[in-house]
Amino acid sequence: MAFEGLAARLQETLKNIRGKGKVSEQDVKDMMREVRLALLEADVNFKVVKQFIANVKEKALGQEVMKSLTPGQQVIKVVNEELTALMGTEQSKIAVAKKSPTVVMMVGLQGAGKTTTTAKLASHLRKQHNRNPLLVACDVYRPAAIQQLQTLGKQVGMPVFSLGDKANPVDIVKQAMQHAEAEHHDYVLIDTAGRLHIDETLMTELADIKSIVQPDEILLVVDAMTGQDAVNVAEAFHEQLDVTGVVLTKLDGDTRGGAALSIKAVTNTPIKFAATGEKVDQFEPFHPDRMASRILGMGDVLSLIEKAQTHVDEEKARELEKKLRSMDFTFDDFLEQLDQVKSMGPLEDLLGMIPGMNKAKGLKNLKVDDQQLVRVEAIVRSMTPLEKQDPSVINGSRRRRIAKGSGTTIQDVNRLLKQFEDMKKMMKQMSGMQGGKGKKKKGF
Ligand code: GDP
């Protein structure tokens, strides 16, 4: 999970104050000293840290907090609110032009993840907003950038407009705009060229493209792992181009969080999206409030629910629940369930969103083994239809065959069969409890 270091430190610091029924000025001061250190260590811009601490202190020492019945919790609420405010009070959405197509220019340094992000954004617009974007390959300098966009375009099923790497970017965008109108595309995403460092030629080229296409949105793609460098890059780009939003990439590898926490405050440009991996679907709108809650270990239940909603077919879920209750649950249903879980992304990412999960003792170093899922799936797929429907027929020789077919061992097969039976038993008990006669429901 992103921001592990910061999250762990802040949670440790806040633990001391959380349950306090009485909080003194000294308590707040002590705590803020720790918070300040944690933020600086996370590579947050020092001016931002200073302002943050001042804001929290003022609010935390205010009458409302100190006189409340739960001052400890109120202080944490203040920290949470201020952390959210640092990253933007509300979620900033991508622009929608009054007149179609909406033009989005993607800018950033080489290697930040611009090309990948362009394809991710296209896929997001299609899946979540039912849009029909056109990708435009304008990075004529980086070797193979055009080809990369074409490959990604194919992967997400989105057309890519290109004139090869000999054409001039300004000509490319001009023709791309005509093409987009003729083909009724409602979004045009332009993958512009980057450089290893900011230089004048790059900025001039970007400014030329900007004046031709008059973009509705200029999204700056920055690599979160570069910390304060990302913030400096953002400042420079913003000065020259009036960037309208930031996409933070590689949050998966950013254990510190300095860029995410500083960019909005330093450049006053909102973070609109976050990328958390190389895969096309590892991309999501950036929610400052949810990110703040995750950093403070309050979990990110909303993101989890949203993820589940986009990936899980509600009807199927209801059907499954019925089956579980009626004990008709078979290995076929199990496979279907497994597919849904897998489509939600790596298990470790999901666990990080569950409140308390990342700080629970013993779970701290928990590594979820996605390989285990692969093995389980192989075993189930090696069963015959009869075996999947009625596992009780699986005798010794069948077990041997399944193990061989799935490249696992008989012990693996035995273990899975036992777990499956245990699970069914547990379900039986649970549904018995819910519908059980004479048993009172326990209230909270
Ligand atoms: P560009 O030069 O800015 O167009 O960068 P690319 O799109 O080619 O990305 C550079 C590298 O970063 C590629 O290997 C990408 O797969 C990788 N990358 C992009 N976004 C992410 C991300 O969110 N997480 C991780 N781990 N890698 C990423």
UniProtKB/TrEMBL annotation:
Part of the signal recognition particle protein translocation system, which is composed of SRP and FtsY. HAMAP family: SRP54 (MF_00306). It is an enzyme of class 3 (hydrolase). GTP binds at residues 108-115, 191-195, 249-252. Residues 101-297 form the SRP54-type proteins GTP-binding domain. Signal peptide: none annotated. The lineage of its organism: Bacteria, Bacillati, Bacillota, Bacilli, Bacillales. Belongs to the GTP-binding SRP family. SRP54 subfamily. This is Signal recognition particle protein. It holds the Pfam family SRP54. Keywords: Cytoplasm, GTP-binding, Hydrolase, Nucleotide-binding, Ribonucleoprotein, RNA-binding, Signal recognition particle. Composed of three domains: the N-terminal N domain, which is responsible for interactions with the ribosome, the central G domain, which binds GTP, and the C-terminal M domain, which binds the RNA and the signal sequence of the RNC. Residues 429-444 are annotated as: Disordered. It is found in: Cytoplasm. One of its GO terms (cellular component) is signal recognition particle. Its EC number is 3.6.5.4. Residues 100-248 form the AAA+ ATPase domain. It comes from Shouchella lonarensis. The keyword RNA-binding applies. It catalyses: GTP + H2O = GDP + phosphate + H(+). It comes from the Bacteria.
